[in-house]
């Protein structure tokens, strides 16, 4: 990656009697940043920013978010335009290469991904070692980490060709691994990928086909699945992406880095929120119970899952597409009157008008409607985060690749403010 940050002036910082000049840098859009790299050397202080709420950890040219305006761009293209007009594989190409592919480039990319979807046959035995009731995310973390034990020829991070092969392998194999995690949990035989099917169609077939009967992919569901993958493909420096970058900054192989990202995504404040959001809707159950539930949120007994976002202080643009997709899927499946949808719509209406949520800028996030949609499509809630991981893999890889190719890249190593005991002498056990 060619560094493109431009000089944008100087910030002055007064620390005691020391005055420090810090360069201000400009990106192509978004807030300027104060470059504090020399601060410690010049002023002997660190900055303190738990949760990185005010800290840019890298330069990136992949994804841009304006949380106040509710804007999300992949390589400059608005998420809703991509969801409406593009396909997940085209978006993968865009995220990895920076530009939309020509017809020839796309055909080649699609073929490469399609022909990498199978797993090494020995790999299937790896799944059998998990307990039959293992959470599919536990299987995902283990299985993706294990890819590095199977594909030694693409783990040299300094070789551009190997980086590309590992990127293709992960995008291609993630649906196969995710579908196997699902099949294993439901006790059904694994279904192999089919090269004549598209990415989302293939995934649905690997999840829902059984040897006992033919399976025809419902095109409304395949389109919805593809859209859901697009919506989740990248989201700049969120917790799991930062985890992938941090793991990768040490030179760890890409499969291990993506496994680290999956582990981070699992948490209920991140990718696990869609599972929690659906559980919450089920717990509320009926529209008449919403006021009581909302009161519990205001009393701070629990949070409204699927609401709020660290970055979006406006309607999450992905949530708008997700809401429309949810209606399309429920219509196609004849589940329009699904009680959970009624609860969701009423909860959204109340939250968008109630001062408690309005003042805190708590809008529905992507997870709010994705749980209902995925559940209607036939996925159990344990699979929701797995689907998120599948889709986010391309974003993680694009960000990992960008980091490795960034000349200013260094191993990630945050500092701390230490408040533990200062140096003291060891006391033998009989004297304590
Ligand atoms: N329900 C009720 N109140 C909330 C919620 C919520 N979901 N989210 C934030 N708040 C309140 C907080 O209590 C706080 O109120 P206060 O100022 O009176 O103390 C205020 O809003 C700000 O909250 P923070 O926790 O500081 O906001 P932050 O940006 O750190 O949190 C987060 C973001 C973690 C996503 C939070 O909104 C949350 O827990 N949401 C529910 C979980 C969820 O849906 N996560 C999915 C995120 S999207 C994704 O990962 C794809």
How would you sum up this structure, described in words?
The chain has 432 residues and is mostly helical. The protein is 50% helix and 7% strand. The chain has helices at residues 39-43, 79-85, 88-97, 103-114, 123-127, 136-150, 160-186, 199-208, 219-231, 239-248, 254-265, 273-284, 290-298, 317-332, 339-353, 355-359, 366-377, 384-404; strands at 6-15, 18-26, 33-34, 63-66, 71-74, 77-78. Strands 1-2-3 form a three-stranded antiparallel sheet. Strands 4-5-6 form a three-stranded antiparallel sheet. A hairpin with a 2-residue loop joins strand 5 (71-74) and strand 6. The radius of gyration is 23 Å and the shape is globular. The protein starts with 5 loop residues before the first strand and ends in a 28-residue tail after the last helix. The model has no long low-confidence stretch (mean pLDDT 94). The structure holds acetyl coenzyme *A. The site of acetyl coenzyme *A has 18 residues, from helix 17.
Question: Oligomeric state of the chains?
Answer: single chain
Overall geometry: globular
Number of helices: 18
Strand content bin: 5-15%
Rg over CA atoms, rounded to whole Å, is 23 Å
Helix fraction by DSSP (H/I, runs of at least 4): 40-55%
Query: Can you list the strand order of the major beta sheet?
Result: 1-2-3
Poorly predicted regions? none
Helix-strand category:
mainly alpha
